Amino acid sequence: MKKILLALVPVVALTAGVASAKGNAHHADKSHKSETAAEMKLYDRLGGKKAIVAVVDEFVANCAADTRINSFFAATAADKKRLAKFKGNLVNQICEASGGPCKYKGKSMKEAHTGMGVQDEHFNALVEDLVKALDKFKVGEKEKGELLAVLGPMKSDIVTAPAPAAAAESAPMHK
Questions:
Q1: Rounded to whole angstroms, how far apart are CA atoms 137 and 135?
Q2: Distance CA 44, CA 40 (A)
Q3: 103: closest CA among 113, 92, 112?
Q4: Number of domains in the chain
Q5: Which of 52, 95, 121, 166 is the most exposed place for a label (fewest CB within 10 A)?
Q6: What are phi and psi of 68, to 5 degrees?
Q7: The predicted structure's pLDDT at residue 55
Q8: pLDDT band for position 118 (50/70/90)?
Q9: d(CA 113, CA 157)
Q10: pTM more than 0.85
């Protein structure tokens, strides 16, 4: 169970950063012109660490309520210290991935998810829960897309179980 929770940390963490992009302005150095939104780091456009924390909190709540995946989080959710560490890892992961000053010090996604049996359907449910959190905080489509693009490549390390074979694939071929 611990491995499952740690495996989901990168996705949750990355999701949290995007949610706070709403209405946050970047303050430029006094000696330089203000940066345009396109020049700002994703971290800043998401609203910084406070915004990422808010998104992660909502994302984790969404996962806990999602019967498709909440069994992966049950043990962590039941232990306040583990839950706090889990959320902190997610925040740091999203913060770092979006160009912020934080450093993720948790396990690699592959190591954290090995043996958990995560399938495509579980990963997709997790992404839906993240998008729901981002939408709640009115994160812009551009920022949401950038965050998901940063997280997407983790899928190959998180999804460790093959999808069930479709009936059509197992049916004999007819000549």
A1: 5
A2: 6
A3: 92
A4: 1
A5: 166
A6: -70, -25
A7: 98
A8: very high
A9: 7
A10: no
